[in-house]
Amino acid sequence: MVTMSLPKRKLAIKNIDPYRCIGCTVCVQSCMSDVIRMKGGKAYIAYQEDCSQCFSCVEDCPREAISIGWIEEH
């Protein structure tokens, strides 16, 4: 009998919309896990797998540019 294991998933930051992001750095400052960084005046997800699921960045973003979703754990 062959058993298959399903990939482990967790809820985390899934996307930062570059069109909505105004580069205010609020999300970078509110992220306790240092997941979000800035590049070219826009926020981006640097270490998605390190997201601690507090979602302070989502709550604090003034432009609602950050979305959450399921990611596969490595």
Contiguous runs where pLDDT drops below 50 for at least 5 residues: none
The structure class reads: alpha+beta
The CATH architecture: 2-Layer Sandwich
Number of domains: 1
Task: Please state the average pLDDT score.
Answer: 94
Total number of helical segments? 2
* Largest sheet report: 2 strands, antiparallel
Strands, count: 4
Describe the structure.
The chain is an alpha+beta fold. It has one domain: Alpha-Beta Plaits (2-Layer Sandwich), CATH 3.30.70.20. The protein is 14% helix and 31% strand. It has two helices and four strands; from the N terminus they run E-H-E-E-H-E. The strands form two sheets. The chain has a two-stranded antiparallel ribbon. Strands 2-3 form a two-stranded antiparallel ribbon. Strand 2 and strand 3 form a beta hairpin. The longest helix is centred in the middle third of the chain and has 5 residues. The chain is elongated, with a radius of gyration of 14 Å. The two termini are 26 Å apart. The mean pLDDT is 94.
